Amino acid sequence: MTRLPVFTGQGPAEEPDDVDAVGAGTSLAAVVRNRIDGLYPIDPFGGDPQMQDVLAPLVRLGVHVRVTNPELLPRSGPAVLISNRGLGVVEPLVLAVAVRQIVGRRLRVLGAPELPILGDAVRRLGGIGYYAEDLGAVLRAGHLVAVPLGNTWLRTGAGEPPVGLIVGALGFPVIPVLVRPAGPFGVPWWGRWNATVGPPVEPDRAVALDDPLSAAELAERARAGVQALIDGSGAR
Amino acid sequence: MRVLVTGMGGELGTRVAQLLEARDDVTEIVGVDFVPPRRRLHRAEFTRIDPRNREKLVAFVTDFAPTAVAHVGVYEPHSRMSPRAARESTEACTIAALGAAARTGRLDRMAVRSGLEVYGRGRGRPSVPDEHTPPSPTTPYGRECLDVEVVAVGIGRRADIPVAALRHAPIVGSHVPSPLGRLLRLPVVPVPAFADPPFALLSLEDASRSFVEALCRGVDGPLNVVGSGAATSWQATRLGGRIPFPVFGPGWTAAIHAAELAGAPVPPHVVELIRKGRVADGSKALDVLELTGVRPTQQVCVDLYEWAVIVPLRRDEAAA
């Protein structure tokens, strides 16, 4: 029977703690040959870990991140990183670079657009659908997921939390992260960024799964966590 | 446990019957279908009844008075019969067999075959639905599966018994009659030109195991059963050494006709799978049914292209 480098990426039965772990590298020629033969992993969310690993070094050429409190990033297991964002596209990318740099994991990002071609491409690179079910499924499969807060054009506040979606994150660790440009006047000068990881958000009572009230409370506490990081950084 | 297996003549029904035979808590197994079982059965008794012959089916089920029903008789269009015959057979088999079994008053559990097609792939739907996602089928086979679930749940509620609905990913294998399997085995396979969405597959063995476990444990409610990981149509085509042929827009109509001429009729739910993908979160089934070693989707895909090795019997073995 032909054996495959199959990435199963699902279920507690199969190595749930390192589904995101970046594996050992292989030659580009081998990658191209395997892709022509169909020998590459795809996960149920449309993610293509091999393509992500091939493109990651190119992204790191243009994005440089300094991470504060890197020890708070989870090295294994499912977790949600709630972060602020300005226009919306760059911060998740910066966070993905930071996560790969510090803990050697691939990051999933909530909010792949439902558009032809672009939507598929974003999913290939780690995006997942903007639905509570998709968030719950990706967490149960053991992934580390970035959930961006609402847009704040000048990055002055934490932004609105996606309350309806957080129900999928109930029962999993939620970690607030602040992503800010490191250049003068809040500009990402030469692609330099700062990321500050906050302490995990602790629910104030026993969380009931599938409970909208628990989800709303968790979302609010996560937003407050990001706001506390903004306040602590001296930015207004 | 006295088990009635509908659809015993199919690959899934036959394997379910074999697995039931191996269990000590199952005392009697009878099966019905319009064709005989695909493998040798030792304890199970098969009766050939066309599901559309309602009177005969109802009389048979009433006479047997099962305590459990494994309703495998949910027929996929273009698998072994035309879409119309598949729909009629499924509807007749579901209502006649489940209704008659419930009316005997001895029924204490049911497991019915369904599919991920019940979730549909309409806009604004999660791409990885779990069992809490409301079904919203977008193809005739999806509606057929949902109808089966609705009828079974209604009967179960009235009789106050657990009803497990097994929403299987498409079951493919080198010897499993399936429109998706036939399409992927064509020498040239139509694939979407501007997309490559993931789909999950399930091996026959895992589908059968999940069915038997759900029935014997008396599970209530729907369960998604999928092979781990996923594959895409471009990838599946290449894994089988086939040539992917990019298609878009109205080209699909021509591609579907060409595939039918080549011997692989493609029903709408298979077109939907190829163009929009079909996956689901199967983690609940792994927990509830304690399934381990579920075959990954890409391995199921490779198995699809591998034919079983034929071992000719020698003269003395044949005589023995």
3D architecture notes:
The complex is a heterodimer of chains A (236) and B (320). By secondary structure, chain A is of the alpha/beta class. Chain A has one domain: Glycerol-3-phosphate (1)-acyltransferase (3-Layer(aba) Sandwich), CATH 3.40.1130. Helix content of chain A is 33%, strand content 14%. Chain A has seven helices and seven strands, in the order ααββαβαβαβαββα. Chain A has helices spanning 28-36, 49-62, 90-103, 118-124, 132-140, 163-166, 212-232, and strands at 64-68, 79-83, 108-110, 127-128, 144-148, 174-181, 192-197. The radius of gyration of chain A is 18 Å and the shape is globular. Chain B has a domain at 2-173 and 201-227 and 280-295: 3-Layer(aba) Sandwich (Rossmann fold), CATH 3.40.50. In chain B, 40% of the residues lie in helices and 16% in strands. Chain B has twelve helices and eleven strands. Chain B has helices spanning 11-21, 54-64, 83-103, 140-159, 179-184, 204-217, 233-239, 251-261, 268-276, 283-288, 297-304, 315-319; strands at residues 2-6, 28-33, 45-48, 68-71, 109-115, 163-168, 188-192, 198-199, 221-225, 231-232, 243-247. In chain B, strands 3-2-1-4-5-6-9 form a seven-stranded parallel β-sheet, sandwiched between helices. The longest helix of chain B is centred in the N-terminal third of the chain and has 21 residues, at 83-103. The chains are: A alpha/beta (236), B alpha/beta (320). At the A-B interface, α5 of A face β10, α7, α10 and α11 of B.
